[in-house]
């Protein structure tokens, strides 16, 4: 007897939509109010409905409802809207700059603006952020100067990472926004360590971190869940399921399509939340913060969203998915959903929206013009190449000193 | 003979092997439907089927481990690590598992896996899209390590790697995918009209362990691999010194015969690589050459390498060894 199999020798999944296909997403069965808020000290097993369902606050009628409604002051919502619009306009401008050769590379958060912004707004300023390249919006919440962000992306003389990293690899210690690293997933388990250090020092600080649906296949994701659960770390572990990892659909990251439920067997309360619903994100995150801060340990959150744009400026998604697919995402667009809600409650108008948009537009242009005063990509000035040798170690050892001298000899000759 | 760039040559090698041997399969991040972020597997899924060329979860450790399992059970997997910088989550599987399985099982199991990965700088990739980690693998007994430099050797070496019954790490200098790199970032030639871009459509092999004598001369032996081979070619031209240029091609096992013969003839040697100097493969070569050629050496062996620092983003041209540094080293070997 040979052990040979029949017709289909190897099962390989596929993406549901390829170029030319119609984007026929199934309508969401979940509505606001479907799932309740558990007790703050709940067990993982009490969150099964939250992990299998979806926390929504904003309904299709643009009204907010249900146990999870954070009942935020409209001022806070307007601030959130402003940050999201700022991020989108900023991203569009930077992408244009990239297209005209003014940046070497860029990555937008298009369609996912609510994620980092709502979640960071739900935290305290002393809480630590351990992001990927898809959460730069958190910096606006923490008041980072836009000029300095652009200088980093250009890699000019004022780049605070001194021309060492690619664009969008921000670092902003003042805002407790920890340096973005290219190898995906690494931050997820490191964040558990950051959280445990706060614990050890007896500080009421919570750490939040994010990982992509794709990167959740890396070992780091599982290390994080295990360590966080074993040591009851005050950490909020988010899987941002935007359906894609470059060209690879999330069907290659999860067989049943649900990331949230993975936290439960690790003993971590787990929630799936509508990632384009600002209020739901805010609410779930403040619940998780409260829990961590009271000593009940980690929360695992799947943020359900859609990567509306290309993976990066190097990517062309029309090669692997229908080009207008993001317009069909059942979760809609985070910015219009929040602005429609604000209009619904009588706190916002098209005119205000337009004015704000124009104000941000000129804010971004002004910042860009200010930033290029410190150098542009084509002509510099760049950070000095001395920065190649500094901060490799606290003090450069002899062999680096020797090589540094040699580099200078070549550079200055 | 068709003219191919290095992307097409790599594609052609995998295509050839998929057609010849049903045990060959290929997988990795974004290599299936999309055809790879550098397009090296473009069209292969369509031609050979989804069960032979497919996307994998984003997990280098998982990719390597799965390839290991397939390899010991009779398949001949070709895996892609999207950037050499991202090979480290797979390091344990490669170094402790693939490299040792033949030995540790008393020869009962072996692992004919080929690990392809784009390496090296010059594309403004910063720390994590530019590294050249070959010496982190040459230091591991049980692995073969290959570094191609042209379309022609890319295809011939890759076919040998796939047919080899040991695990092979196959580095592709990404800066040279679409043209040779002579050290001047503003000069961006393509492979068209380059003699090393004449690539047969059919199956051919360049044996692992054979170096390529790219230029022949008698005043100095210049040894390099990957993108730096072209930088050395430029440097030799501009130096006015008659040199042998040895494109090592395979680092483990390296072509000791060709190297010793050349250094015995020239008495002078310059080794050039992009990777950092400390514990770089140049150190191994220099030590071995002096063991074997000490009495023929007329001057100290020179090394021109990347600095012992992370690879920078905006200032990468102050990091990558350029022709000027190579020329100076060649000239210095002539002084005694
Ligand atoms: C360890 C590692 N492997 C591969 C890559 C190349 N890469 C960069 S982003 C990416 C996809 C990430 O997808 P996901 O985790 O879903 O995040 P998203 O981009 O969707 O936010 C890949 C494969 C990388 N940066 N690091
Ligand atoms: Mg994703």
Could you explain the architecture of this structure?
The complex is a heterodimer of chains A (413) and B (336). Chain A has 413 residues and is α/β, with parallel strands linked by helices. Chain A folds into two domains: 44-382, Rossmann fold (3-Layer(aba) Sandwich), CATH 3.40.50; 386-413, no CATH class. Helix content of chain A is 35%, strand content 8%. Chain A contains eleven helices and seven strands. Chain A has a five-stranded parallel beta sheet with strand order 1-2-3-7-6, sandwiched between helices. A two-stranded antiparallel ribbon of chain A has the order 4-5. In chain A, strand 2, helix 7 and strand 3 form a beta-alpha-beta unit. In chain A, helix 2 (74-99) runs antiparallel to helix 9 (334-344). The radius of gyration of chain A is 22 Å and the shape is globular. Chain B has 336 residues and is α/β, with parallel strands linked by helices. Chain B has two domains: 6-197, Thiamin diphosphate (ThDP)-binding fold, Pyr/PP domains (Rossmann fold, 3-Layer(aba) Sandwich), CATH 3.40.50.970; 212-333, Rossmann fold, CATH 3.40.50.920. Chain B has helices spanning 6-20, 44-48, 60-72, 91-98, 101-104, 135-138, 151-163, 228-239, 256-266, 281-293, 323-333; strands at 24-28, 53-55, 76-80, 114-119, 144-147, 168-173, 212-215, 220-224, 243-247, 250-252, 269-276, 302-306. In chain B, strands 2-1-3-4-6-5-10 form a seven-stranded mixed beta sheet, sandwiched between helices. In chain B, strands 7-9-8-11-12 form a five-stranded mixed beta sheet, sandwiched between helices. Chain B is globular. Chains A and B meet through helix 11 of A and helix 3 of B.
